[in-house]
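G., before I forget:
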Amino acid sequence: MSVIKNDLKRPVRFTKPDRSKEHSMSEIKNDLLLKALRKEKVERPPVWMMRQAGRYLPDYIKLRDKYDFFTRVQTPELAADITLKPFHQIGVDAAIIFSDILVIPQAMGVEVLMEEGKGPSLPKSIKTQKDIDALNTNNVDEYLKYVFDALSLTKKELNGAVPLIGFAGAPWTIFCYMIEGKGSKTWDNAKQFAYTETELAHQLLQKITTITIDYLKAQTKAGADCVQVFDSWAGSLSPEDFKIFAQPYLLQIANAVKDFAPVILFPKGTWYALEDLSKSSASAIGIDWAVSPKQARALTNNNITLQGNFDPAKLLAPIPQIKKWVKEMIDDFGTQNYIANLGHGITPNVPVEHAKAFVEAVKEYQNQDLQN
Amino acid sequence: MSVIKNDLKRPVRFTKPDRSKEHSMSEIKNDLLLKALRKEKVERPPVWMMRQAGRYLPDYIKLRDKYDFFTRVQTPELAADITLKPFHQIGVDAAIIFSDILVIPQAMGVEVLMEEGKGPSLPKSIKTQKDIDALNTNNVDEYLKYVFDALSLTKKELNGAVPLIGFAGAPWTIFCYMIEGKGSKTWDNAKQFAYTETELAHQLLQKITTITIDYLKAQTKAGADCVQVFDSWAGSLSPEDFKIFAQPYLLQIANAVKDFAPVILFPKGTWYALEDLSKSSASAIGIDWAVSPKQARALTNNNITLQGNFDPAKLLAPIPQIKKWVKEMIDDFGTQNYIANLGHGITPNVPVEHAKAFVEAVKEYQNQDLQN
């Protein structure tokens, strides 16, 4: 029994991975990411890239042309294969499971359609108390079994080489899609709902939070060594509204999940929340390039590991320039309590060699340090 | 002789307004805006709304359905009529000339197409040194005569009731469109050009700056009592890149125009630049809602008049709620050295009564003050 509606081109073949063997963190050979999350000393910063398994990789494009979006997401072998590609091809220090933040609305019983190149749409957006009451928050284990299977399979394939990152969308961002029914520049409808049906909005945000906590915990049981919460549309809110509609739910998730695995919060565009979030149960905060590394360190009082914040558009510059900028970025963040990453997802037009150069530049930083 | 290519449905009728009579500021009856720009004491903050003559007004929709975009922009009677509507219908304390930031690329010899509801496109985007060399920076008086005629006509119709605001796009924002050739979420191509062809980028930015300065000066001669520079895409840049590609050109404009009329700079999404800009020749800085009024005052050391920053999405909330928020906003900014406005353009889905309520709430603030 599944509430997930999709347009599969072929039947989904579910694997039965062996979850009996627990993978402890000590088994991971390259545990730079986990060390940085625990604020332990590292010889160089770990590096990975948001959307590292995405459309800039020719091998991903081949799979995209063969299988539709939800087939890729819902077939553990495909999801695992896609997850592993950037580890093998780009040399990142972590794998992040290939999936989508909108599996949560699906698990709640809401239809999600994905048209290639057009973004998601949710034909039945949430409008009333009745709509909210009808949403499921239970049995995420069952509804999203394919994600956990993909994580277990990926974990097995990685064989402890690097950590595996799980993820979910943040409640405000999922709320935006569930109300708006599609992407938006301004999220007017989502905000109108939040501002006029405030009590209903909090009910919906709480429901999303509840199932997301279960979902992230289950991801850690299935093999995720840490998890990231993507609040892609947090920056559409004013500082005051972020504190009302986004921050409490992010904190709730960080509090509930922290004992299962380290949590990275990435509320894009919310420089104003950095101080508050640095005091949260999260192990790291992801930041975009609208805040400089030094500003971000100052705003967080050097209290928490930071992740980011290379402008993906800079990966379109010549390789020597990319390497120079990466060095400057690490100079400014410092090598400790830091995870090198982009400030947003890598874009499809980035040449693979440029993505590699970004990763190499972080790895080379170690040598420069040793030479000095 | 004109380089402007357009798709006029009917011939443009140019008026011959009388520019012989100079309008001094002292002639303006409601000069709250100009007082706020001069940091003079006001009995209440002035209020206007970005895009106040836009698609939320039914009378504008009627004209839009009758005349295409560039006909509306290039016909002084139409532009003046559209400019005056929100003054008459909504009661704002200033009129802002109806026009478009992309008249500057047009005056430089670049074709701009505007498809209703689809946004602008520039079929021949700038790619090479040759493209830049071919751009015109002279005779803005001639190429954009229709704007100056519209300003003179509006000024005459206003008869000194409220100030008239002129405007232009900021060099970085115009650069984005000229390189990208259309709107973009990420401005990847514009940034790639800036990062890889940096010298060419500065040549282009300087050319845009040069003609924009002439354009804004000419607007003040034609009747604009102050001017606003819209840097809508400034926030796509990191703090460091803003200082390289945006800020110097904004400062150049402010320096060159300040002796002709007060300048308002509105670089959206650049909270990090507020301190620097507060020390510029600008008379005010426009801010969006990603910075709180109190943060903005702190970042500018109370040194400059601030304009903003109501989230336009909040105009979709019930009227009593709008009025409550407006009061809180003014409480936080203070009544002096402040211009009440939105943090971005008003959206087409805002009910006219809600726009009126926003303006009324600012005007009512005075009474509350007097009662206390």
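The mean pLDDT of chain B is 92. The interface with chain A takes residues 186-188, 191-192, 195-196, 235, 238-241, 269-272, 289-292, 295, 311-314, 316-318, 321, 347, 349 of chain B (CB under 8 Å).

More on Monday.
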